[in-house]
What does this fold into?
Amino acid sequence: MDKNTRKLYELKAEVFRAVAHPLRLAVIDFLKDGEQCVCDIARHIGAQRSNVSRHLAVMLKAGVVEHRKDGLRMIYSLKAPCILNFLSCVTDLLRRRMEQNRAALKGLK
Amino acid sequence: MDKNTRKLYELKAEVFRAVAHPLRLAVIDFLKDGEQCVCDIARHIGAQRSNVSRHLAVMLKAGVVEHRKDGLRMIYSLKAPCILNFLSCVTDLLRRRMEQNRAALKGLK
DNA sequence: TAACTATGTGAGTATATGCTCACTAAGGCA
DNA sequence: TGCCTTAGTGAGCATATACTCACATAGTTA
It folds into this structure.
């Protein structure tokens, strides 16, 4: 694998990593219905604002969300809604995993 | 956000994290064309087998890949091909980001 | 102007992740 | 049987990430 290919995978992995966190997934789910300010995101998720701010910065850098200023508030919105598709793909995967576990437990009886 | 919702986001994040690594993305891309043994994956990617083995274990646990034994070899294959869709979504995102950067650089002149 | 609100950041700490080396285990073959 | 190949794992280290507290900054409003 040559150096350019490797670099490309690193860039892609950065985007994946920007999404791969429970709190950030919750933010993405919340933004699905429309743009929100940091304070409301923090309130909705139940995390400290400074922490939410950092997580938003990670997603911003990766290009997953975008933001605009409105007075005191910074309004964030989803920039790559196709992430939602993958989220439902992951939900399916979890469901299948759960059913496999259930089947395995049945086999224990 | 209640406890169950939080737990669900953690499970989903685990799957995302299982994919969010340059080497693991390279493996997924390689498996796209069909199942492969660890030795060939390691050779193709140019990484140590012990390291590749660990990465495969992470993806296996998350349900992203599956494996079967064939004599000496352990053959891995993609279990959640829908990841490939998200990969192309990320590729688009990167392309857009690049074009934005290019436009910004033009503005510098 | 002074107090207040929303946001972001520096510093410090705890934890997680990734990598390598050395070793073990399982299977194939002379 | 003895040696080879393939895969996986324990230990140790280096680095990255997440979180919190305290503080700085920008904008709002009395």
